[in-house]
Amino acid sequence: MKKTVIIGATPNPSRYAFFAAERLTQKGHPIVPLGIKKGKVGDGIDIINDKPAIDDVDTVTMYVGPQRQEEWIDYIISLKPKRIIFNPGTENPVFYKKAAEAGIFTEEACTLVMLSSQTY
Fold first, then answer.
1. Residue 20 CA to chain centroid, in angstroms?
2. Alpha-carbon torsion angle 69, 71, 75, 76, nearest 10
3. Integer angstrom CA distances of residue 35 from 74, 89, 110
4. pLDDT band at 72; cut points 50, 70, 90
5. What is the predicted pLDDT for the residue at 73?
6. Rounded distance, CA 109 to CA 6, Å?
7. Starting at the edge strand that comes first in sequence, how are the strands of the sheet with 83-86 ordered?
8. Less Cβ around it within 10 Å: N or C end of the chain?
9. Does residue 43 carry a pLDDT above 90?
10. Where do the H-state alpha helices sit in the chain?
11. Is residue 26 a contact partner of residue 6, using CB atoms and an 8 Å limit?
12. What global pTM score does this model have?
């Protein structure tokens, strides 16, 4: 199972970040949902409204657009994830370069499609 940090987690059930939290927990992946809204996702997991230290991160999945990513870049790199998934609308070549320099694999993909096609 791949510990996944969700950047842009939301309790809004009409958002893709909410669906991703649900699907990841259904598939048995532990999640750490980070966002600006208060609420719960997955199996009643509280959304964290700050940037805590997190160990053993496999994947960071992005649901925050490039215009709001700057405040997250150094923090995400500090987590030392194996990969960062840039979901549609979150693509950011500047972030890709910084991640690559830190030895982090990046991919433009959809977490929900990856889970459905068993390529996650």
1. 9
2. 0
3. 16, 17, 19
4. very high
5. 97
6. 14
7. 31-34, 4-7, 59-62, 83-86, 105-108
8. N
9. no
10. 16-26, 70-78, 93-101, 111-116
11. no
12. 0.96
